[in-house]
Design goal:
globular
Length: about 150
Amino acid sequence: MFGLAPDGFADQLGKSLGVTAPKELLTGRYLVAVWEDEGVIRDIRPDTGFVPLLRQEKKWGLIATGKGNSNPYDCVSRFFAPDKGVFEDPVTGSAHCAIVPYWAKRLGKRELRAYQASPRGGDLLCTDEGERVVLAGPCALYLKGEIEF
């Protein structure tokens, strides 16, 4: 990931999410907006104004993340992908695969407790193993099947 800061972009993004401007913007598969406080992530009340901003940057997903400021969480996030038909995803594995290396390096930890603060919410135990991220946590079986060759 690398920094991204078009003039006024951070301010516009913060305003469209109903919070202050992010302290840092990163890009990769998704646009990642970073705040210093998990409370900002929990306070996000997005309008559709961030959708054109994502399109402008040729991104279809937005990860909003902040440093956890209370036990047990090291980081808190939310994920939005309105152009893919998911305004806000409840718990997103791919988003955590993107942010865990960032937070692991920044916090000097290999294993992180993460929380996705969507209305449904979800706890994750995330391990940065260098070339990959291992995710664990409670889940619900939603599909079972067999594949025959």
